[in-house]
Amino acid sequence: MKKWLFFIFAVCFSQNAFAQSAENLRTIETYLNSLNSLEATFVQMSSNGGTAEGRLFIKKPNKIRMEYAEPTNVLIVGDGKDIVYNDFELDQVTHIDYDDIPASLILANDIKIDGKKLKVSDFYQDSGSTTITLDYADRGDIGPITLVFSNNPMELLQWKIVDPQSIEVTVSLYDTQKDIPLDDKIFKFKNKKSSPLNYKKK
């Protein structure tokens, strides 16, 4: 009798946990899909000891601008077609396809965490935050992305990826403004070595 009670309790508990997990995934989907634009200060840290900071601009779908402060002097601009990585110090411009970066997930308009294109490889939630790691099912060597959100209100706090050199890169967001007007011009790349960065380190 005790064994049956344990079995019934375990099954009920598992079903409740699954339902709760599904509800959490829908909440994350809704937040990401309802995000129209975002502006924030970011701090980037790498597992090899590198640090940088700057200003982030996102406008959906697929527009991004990351202005790095000195001494990094890098500008990343995505206009929806491709992403440009501009190293001012080296006077070097590199074009990157959206499909080659895991962080393109947060730029999409229709995100579905359904186990098909995106599957959950890790999930953790406490009273203050939610952390989820997502794997791409059909994007070859592209690694997973970990997203961290505050719970109340829900807000994207951080993302974490592993680059092709196996270096873990963490980008944390501060002073975030959501759904504000952003001019499309800031997502257009102009190949000028002397172009100043808008972001100035305090």
Describe this structure in words.
There is one protein chain. This protein is of the alpha+beta class. The protein has a single domain, classed as Lipoprotein localisation LolA/LolB/LppX (outer membrane lipoprotein receptor (LolB), chain A), CATH 2.50.20.10. The protein has one helix at residues 2-34, and strands spanning 37-46, 51-59, 63-68, 74-79, 83-87, 92-96, 118-125, 129-136, 145-151, 154-162, 168-178. The protein has an 11-stranded antiparallel β-sheet, with no helix packed on it. A hairpin with a 3-residue loop joins strand 7 (118-125) and strand 8. The longest helix has 33 residues, at 2-34.
Short description:
An eleven-stranded antiparallel sheet has the order 6-5-4-3-2-1-11-10-9-8-7, with no helix packed on it.
